[in-house]
Each structure stands twice: as C-alpha cells, then as structure tokens.
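Ticket opened by: R.M.
Priority: normal
Category: complex prediction / small molecule

The reporter submitted a protein together with glutamine and asked that the result be attached to this ticket for the collaborator who will pick it up next week. Submitted input follows.
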Amino acid sequence: MCRHLGYLGPRASVGGVLTGGEHSLRVQSYAPNDMRGGGTVNADGFGVAWWQDGSVRSYRNPMPIWTDPAVDDVLPQLDSTSVIAAVRSATVGMPVERSACAPFTDGRWAFSHNGVVRGWPHSLTDLWSEVPPVDALTLPAPTDAAAIWIMLRQLLATLDPPVALATLVRRIEARAPGSRLNFLLGDGENMYATAVHHALSVRRSEDAVTIASEPTDEASDWTHIDDRSLVVATASEFTVSRLDEEEHK
Ligand code: GLN
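Result attached by the on-call engineer:
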C-alpha cells in the first residue's frame, strides 16, 4: 500500500518534505513500518505536488523514488507553503506508469489515495456510469486511485471537501466492502485526509501541520488517527471527526 504525506506551514523545501526525518517518505518507500494488504515496498514511482502563485505544480516519476537524482538535486531548490507527496506500491493488475502516480492534480487540487478498492473495476460499475463521458475521458490512468480522483473531483464541484470525501467513502464501501480508502486532498491552504482501514498520523508544531501514513521520525508529538476518521487541517490546527457523521452535519 502506498504511503502519502501532506505538509502545510511556513515555506519549506519541496525536496526536504520528501527526505526529512529518519523515517522520511523516501525511507518509507523501501522500509515502510506499516504495510497492509500484501505489499512490501513502495517502488512503483512517486509524485509530489506543491503550490506556486495560487496554482498547483507537480513532479512524478514511475521509477522508485530512491533512483531519482532530482529528489536531492532539483526539488530542494523549490519551496512552498504546502506540499502533498506519495510513494506508490501498485495494486496487483494495475499499471506502473507515470500517469498512475499520485498526486493527481487539477485546478487548485492535489489528491492521493493510499489503499485499494475491492473488486475493482466491476464493483464500481454503477458509480462510474454516473461520471459524464467527457470527464471519464480525463481519467489519468486505468487504476482505482485515478477513478476515485475523477469521481471526487465531480463531488467537489458542489460539496464541501469533508462532505465530498465522506460521501465518496460511503458510496464505495456500499459496493466494495473491505476497501482501504485513505484519501489525502489539498488545495494549498487546507488539507483533508481520511483513515479507512489504513494507518494515519498527524503532527502539529507551532506553525505547521503534517499528515502522514507513517510518522517521519520517532518524536512523541505525532497523533495516531483512529480508523474511520476524517482530518481537516490548516497550517495552524487540525480537527479529527468521525467520518460516518460527516455527511449529516
Ligand atoms: N490502488 C492504488 C494504485 O495501485 C493505490 C496503491 C496503494 O495504496 N498501494 O495506484
């Protein structure tokens, strides 16, 4: 299962967000602590999104993150007040290609899915048939994560992010029980994350919030997030609520 990480705070090096901490996202790519569902390493590429002048930029590579010299040579030269990054372990049967690497981006949004949809794609046939054909044509890759992104983008057009995420989790679970649905969504100023059958931790320091599949170091200021929770974060605070209550607020 992939690992992802989101940062909101003072301007920070984009490369540094990938490599910071003794258990950085890059270390988690070859030595993760908490893999669930069969994978052992996250070697099927990586991606990172950051915000510049209000719009989201990204860099993705289908090779293992530890083989890419840009992580040490180029990405540290960029900085941003928000970064969303992911290392990928492709689900069996799904392609290993750049377009399948999270984060997926559009407009101000960046999105990552850590997990798997059970019975994909057949389990989601009726949900997917609600996506307008022209939007279906923008599916970045034939993977569960990419399809989730297109459906989420649809919901974000009319719903607040917490409601959109909770609605999508409920709809997917109704059709594909047992799915692992850890989502991470950001717009450069806010981050939203779900924990559904997968690990998630959050750290708040004086002026920054980090959300990560696994803590990036052994410091004691990480909060472990309970299963079936939704995290909403700004640079200065985060709240945790029950995912199942989110739609009814
Ligand atoms: N199922 C997704 C993919 O293959 C996410 C992978 C993961 O979390 N391991 O892209």
